[in-house]
Write a structure and sequence with these properties.
Blueprint: H1 6-52, E1 58-59, E2 64-72, E3 75-83, E4 90-99, E5 105-116, E6 121-127, E7 137-145
Antiparallel strand pairs: 1-7, 2-3, 3-6, 4-5, 4-7
């Protein structure tokens, strides 16, 4: 019976453990990515569902602007301004999308700005659902005046 020297056997064991560990890390990264992707898709779907609840809304994306983003605690926020060009009070339901510097979708929220007087502006704050990394930008994805 031939014996395997202890050092090479130990090295083989360490290499096998390292391979399993690296494979485990890749699997963990993939799982984490899947979770984030799933949460992001769920936020987008929930935001669209909220927009679909608005009855008799008129497209009003041109009435609404998004200011620069900042952080508030662990969330990204942006001031959203609705300007009512009509001759009666209006309520706005606005879907705000947060994107990274490359334009990739990060999060989506729905904001209501109610009671905007004719010819006046009113602001509200869009707050991300989760912590966003980098320097996200807020965009008006959809706005309805009702």
């Amino acid at each position: 019976m031939r014996r395997i020297p202890r050092i090479p056997a130990l090295a083989l064991g360490v290499a096998a453990t390292a391979t399993l560990t690296l494979t485990g890390c890749d699997a963990a990264k993939e799982t984490a990515g899947d979770i984030v992707s799933s949460a992001t898709a769920a936020a987008a779907s929930a935001a669209q569902d909220k927009m679909n609840e608005v009855k008799d809304g008129v497209k009003a994306t041109g009435d609404v602007t998004a200011g620069p983003t900042s952080t508030d605690g662990d969330r990204t926020v942006a001031e959203i301004t609705a300007t009512n060009p009509k001759d009666e009070d209006a309520d706005y339901t606005i879907m705000v999308t947060f994107r990274d510097a490359d334009g990739n979708f990060l999060d989506s929220v729905v904001l209501n700005i109610d009671g905007v007087k004719p010819g006046e502006s009113k602001t509200g704050t869009a707050r991300s659902n989760r912590t966003l990394s980098g320097e996200p930008k807020a965009e008006i994805a959809q706005a309805l005046r009702h």
